[in-house]
Amino acid sequence: MDNLQKFVKQVKNQLFVILLINNMLILADWYILDHMLHLNFATLFAALIAASILSLTILPWFSTKYITQPTKLIWQAILHIAPDAGMVPAPDLKRKSIGHDMVMNLVSHVYQLANVVDGIEKTNAARPGDLSKNFVANSLPLPLVVLDKNDTVLFANHQMLDVIKRTDTETVGQNVYSVLDLSFGSTSHQTLDAWQKDVRANRPVAVKTWERVRLNVPATDQEADVPQFDLAAYYNKDNPEGFETMLVFFDKSESYGKDDQALSFVALAVHELRTPITVLRGYIEALEEELHDKLDPETAGFVHKMKAAAQSLTSFINNMLNVARIENNQLTLKLHQDSWADIVKATVDDETLHAGVLGIQITTDIAPDLPAAGVDRVSIYEVLANLISNAVKYSGKSKKVTVKSYLNSEGMIETIVQDGGAGIPASVLPNLFEKFYRSHRSRNQVGGTGLGLYLAKAIVDAHGGHIWVRSKEGEGSTFGFTVIPYAKLAEEKKTGDNNDISRGAHGWIKNHSLYSR
């Protein structure tokens, strides 16, 4: 006999007992009222009706509670495992009740089904979704890559596969940094790899965009340009489908390529100016040395101004060529042990010539006993010269520029260049170190290329230092940068005679993970 038949038989027996008790109570009531109390017929009939009503009220209440106990236990078991039912306790199955075997069997099946469903949900949650059949992902007219929490490629649409020249089987399941060889511009504060590490440690959801990202792909033509993109990344730590990071690429190869071509053309043009400007400076210096005591004051002033102009043109040429080298990863610095005070004094002496023509005084305040710096003298000279030249150009009516050098609290050699000019608007400050950037205000008042600060940042970064600016409109500007004392440079990076350290000043930074994984 199965549990259900046994339960039905128990219910029948219980109903039989309840009805038997009810009838016996009515008969007992009639016997007492008629044979013992000798009531008249009307009173007897009324008493029997009242007894029947009372039994029909009390007996169903007790019998319902007893007979429905199995249903209550099953109901409680279902609510106990339901996700949206709140904290319902598990039923107590140790107490004997009607249909106990059936209840035990059904509740056991309910729990087993719940475990199966939970296992399926966990498996589905752990298994990444399949985007290969997703219409939107495949039809998106932009290269798209989706990654899991381990940086494994879960999906790459047809546009992405066309760009990287790989098949789906060669891409999906691979680490993203073995598939995408990305290089980021020097103005980018984070590579994709660095950004991912940061958000994984600190944020559940994040969005990031980059401009001028190079995607190095196998080229069939050796002369083909490297594709350049704007990159947008979306991160979701707890994505139920397992899609943690999504990358979308926007092809800007044509527009960015034009910028690069323009820079290359300008660099080629200014390179041709090096020889004539060198000859011109030689003649001016010879003229100044040979005739300095024979020229009248007005002519001497003309010679002085020609020398300052030739020096400014030389700085412009050097800036253009250095920027071109940085953009093509061709600028390598050699860090030597050098006197920082001597470098500052030499730079100030050279810039004093141009400042004097404009009637501006440059003062220096160099802390005594500064340690020797680990610098590439030629390139760091360009940094300081650019900052002083800018201060002279933007000093306005103050007619004074101050250069200070000291050892800061972090043990770095810090140098600041301060002017009392018009200052820089707060909206402009975040973009100052970008290539070709110039404020619309300064563009209309002072000449320049917008490359000096970009170059300065690239060189300072390559030296392991930091460049910064503080400014307020109407109160002048202060630019500062740091270089590392030679003694603090890592010993393992010193070569041969212990006096030469190589550093790269590159405009493009590759993902670290491409080489560390």
Can you describe this structure?
The chain has 517 residues and is α+β, with helices and mostly antiparallel strands. It folds into 4 domains: 3-124, no CATH class; 135-251, Beta-Lactamase; 261-328; 332-507, Heat Shock Protein 90, CATH 3.30.565. It is built from 16 helices and 15 strands. The strands form 3 sheets. Strands 2-1-6-5-4-3-15 form a 7-stranded antiparallel beta sheet. β10 and β11 (413-419) form a beta hairpin. 24% of the residues are buried.
- CATH architectural group of the largest domain: 2-Layer Sandwich
| Biggest beta sheet summary | 7 strands, antiparallel
Measured by DSSP, the beta-strand proportion falls in: 15-25%
Structural class: alpha+beta
Low-confidence stretches: 440-448, 494-499, 512-517
Q: What is the secondary structure topology, with strand pairs?
A:
Elements: H1 3-36, H2 41-67, H3 69-81, H4 100-126, H5 135-139, E1 144-147, E2 153-156, H6 158-164, H7 168-171, H8 176-179, E3 181-185, H9 192-202, E4 205-216, E5 228-236, E6 245-251, H10 253-291, H11 297-327, E7 332-338, H12 340-357, E8 361-366, E9 373-375, H13 377-393, E10 400-407, E11 413-419, H14 440-443, H15 452-462, E12 467-471, E13 477-483, E14 501-504, E15 508-510, H16 513-516
Parallel strand pairs: 8-10
Antiparallel strand pairs: 1-2, 1-6, 3-4, 3-15, 4-5, 5-6, 7-9, 7-14, 10-11, 11-13, 12-13
Helix pairs in contact: 1-2, 1-4, 3-4, 10-11, 11-15, 12-13, 13-15
